[in-house]
């Protein structure tokens, strides 16, 4: 597999500003203009990527590190840069890739899914952190990726690893890890951040990669299973997805619930007028509500949480039954049938004959 056979690639905001073990071999790269080039712009402040590296290298200081910077310190990443970094890993036959980052936007996962699949098929071990709300995050929930959440119940010892038996997905995506040790003066408590739980798993995989045993995904998963601490069944219940939401006045985009039979016509009116709309549905259209455990009954906070995540002009939710959520969660309910479409808002109800009439009311209401 060449010179990267036993290297660790960290895709993040660079690895700078943190004291690493003496003799650490590190190559600094960055994504620029869609290409991966040498990074010659070190930053003095501790980077997120450096903290991840420190957690890994305390256990496995001899593994060479390749840092690929895809974002500046303190800024959000870009799916195109993540895609370019993953393609570099594929072309250069990376053995182990660490990503304490990801996207929450369902439609964006397609930009990296094929590359992640090819990396997995080629034997690259990948670790990714969930978002701190434990909302589905890509690549953490892709098959073949070790997806990690922090031990927010305080069950595990420092650097303990476990599996969540109640996780509604692939076994490798259900890892829980704990990091409670200090990373140095001035560095805040990192125990409950998923970003810093994920390096605990990466550190263990790095040890396996250097063992000379020819580690594979199957062997790595089996080893983690053998070594895993027991985690109380149901201890993570209610914490797979946390929907803190936002107050309605802080959410700039309209949030609507639309009855199934009316979803197509109403969505069509938005699209015909050039609006970018994201649909959440329990039966196949748009983003699957089942991803969030919301197929049967949408939880309080869920619509507003999604409104804070998705870069759309409006969100449309569609389920078999109207959810019992207040107008602080759903701005407008659209139900009934063609010829008698009932639109409910906080101030009352209106009846319209067609989706076109409904759409004109929507534009006027949210103007």
Write the layout of secondary structure elements.
Layout: E1 8-12, E2 26-32, E3 35-38, H1 48-57, E4 65-69, H2 79-91, E5 96-99, H3 110-121, E6 125-129, E7 145-150, E8 161-163, E9 175-177, H4 194-209, H5 217-227, E10 255-258, H6 260-272, E11 277-281, E12 287-288, H7 302-307, E13 314-318, E14 332-337, E15 340-345, E16 348-352, H8 355-365
Parallel strand pairs: 1-4, 1-5, 2-4, 5-6, 6-7, 7-9, 10-13, 10-14, 11-12, 11-13
Antiparallel strand pairs: 2-3, 8-9, 14-15, 15-16
What keyword list fits this structure?
367 residues, alpha/beta, nine-stranded mixed β-sheet, seven-stranded mixed β-sheet, 8 helices, 16 strands
Written description of the protein model:
The protein is of the alpha/beta class. It contains eight helices and 16 strands. It has helices at 48-57, 79-91, 110-121, 194-209, 217-227, 260-272, 302-307, 355-365, and strands at 8-12, 26-32, 35-38, 65-69, 96-99, 125-129, 145-150, 161-163, 175-177, 255-258, 277-281, 287-288, 314-318, 332-337, 340-345, 348-352. The strands form two sheets. Strands 3-2-4-1-5-6-7-9-8 form a nine-stranded mixed beta sheet, with helices on both faces. A seven-stranded mixed beta sheet has the order 12-11-13-10-14-15-16. A hairpin with a 2-residue loop joins strand 2 (26-32) and strand 3 (35-38). The longest helix has 16 residues, at 194-209. The mean pLDDT is 91.
